[in-house]
Amino acid sequence: MRPMGVERQQLPEDARGPSPDVRRAGTERGGIDRRGIERRGIDRIPVEERTSTPGTFFVIFVGTSVGLGAVAFGWVGITFGLGLWSTISAIAIGTAVGQILLVPLILIGSRTATNNATASGATFGVRGRFIGSAIGLGTCLVSVALTVWTSGSAGLAVASRLFGLPESPASYTGAYALITAIAVAVAIWGYRWLVRSTAILAVSGGILLILMPVAFAADIEWDYAGGEYLLGTFWPTWLSVAATVGVAGALVVCTILGDWSRYIRSDRYPARKLVPVASAGIFVGFVVPATVGAVVSTAFTDPFAPFTVSLAGESPSWYTVVLLPLAVLGGVGLTASSLYSAGLDLDAVVVRLTRPRATVIIGVVAVALVYVGLLAPNVQESISAALLVLAELSAPWAVIVGIWFVQARGRFHADDLQVFNRGQTGGRYWYTGGWRIPAVLAWAAGAIAGLLTIQTPLFGGPLADIANGVDVSLLAASAVAALVYVLLTVRAAPPAEDGDRGSRPQG
Q1: Tell me, what CATH number does 97's domain have?
Q2: Does residue 239 belong to any structural domain of this protein?
Q3: Residue 30: its pLDDT value, please?
Q4: Where is this region: Disordered (predicted)?
């Protein structure tokens, strides 16, 4: 048995010269142009640029999770009617369950030197990878909209309290635009800037986050029992929080993990070194800020009032001063990383579009979504519903990619993943016109099963009550996708072992 990883003759480290995309961009050194902007898109990262470590991955996820958007997820559990410890347990257990599906997706980037959506072409076909790109675009847009909304609203509320700035539509417009503009600039400059900025945020934002419960210590109700359950009884509500905030929160990043791990060499940092550190970063990044949010929410006069409004209005004066940079800079970190990932996803769909231009387009669309979202009668419930719908699409995708990873024993022919980007056809992953039909059908079946059984605060699927009020939609989506995929591919040879070994220009 050959060792797991990219096959030796296909290693990015063996590539001669820059990829076609990089040559076209006119870079001078290391994929960086004269202005210091990263020109790498979804092309493979050369070995000399793959200098990141598992620790870098950890810092990125923790650094992008210290903003108020991540903290507000803990408040969501409280608004569902759960008590403090029930909320924390639901988020922690849900995140841990979601992380099981993420293990192969952590490794894919380091073994292909490209992002996960492009690497999923091995599973779905080089055109079928558009499924992953579309899911990634959707999740990143929702993440950006949520972060800009929470950070901008909190920042303006704090500025109003400190400096008397009016909380008018024009002020909100300016706050949202400011955060997005700074985040777009960081995302355009690229990976190295993101690493530097998130390292700073991980330390400074972490300190400000720790100070938050200290500021509200006198009013925190550690025995807070909750209120009226959103779904009528405890367990359906607890499972809904576990699915909405925990599992769905983890699955939000399933398509973007490769954006960071593609800069980590698999020969230097194999699975036993990368997976534990990366998993710890994801867990800490999701659970710790949400826990702080849940704890602080119990100290508010009205725990069900909008989180950012209560936080800005009820903070002690000394903490209000430090809350302003947390609101703005924390929002910039998560927004920038989401914009960077969304830019790569759009670059994967529209291959003629450069990553910086794709990032600007996504930034404009995201701000528009924020303004549209503000028209919704209940923003919190709308965001929860959107995240759950995206999770129903993400779960079967992640399961199928994970099964393929096991079937192929973690091996990729990385060069054949770039066929579509070069305007060619053929290669091992061309399958049927660029689509791998069994994988696409299995994903569609899983997604339909999930949407039929989904339960959200706004609506439920036709089969939402199939388990007596318990939300089994993510389980149904994952199980159906896995079953259909295995049945359709049980007799097939591992995809990495056969197929056309050449590629041809299109036309």
Answers
A1: 1.10.4160.10
A2: yes
A3: 56
A4: 1-35
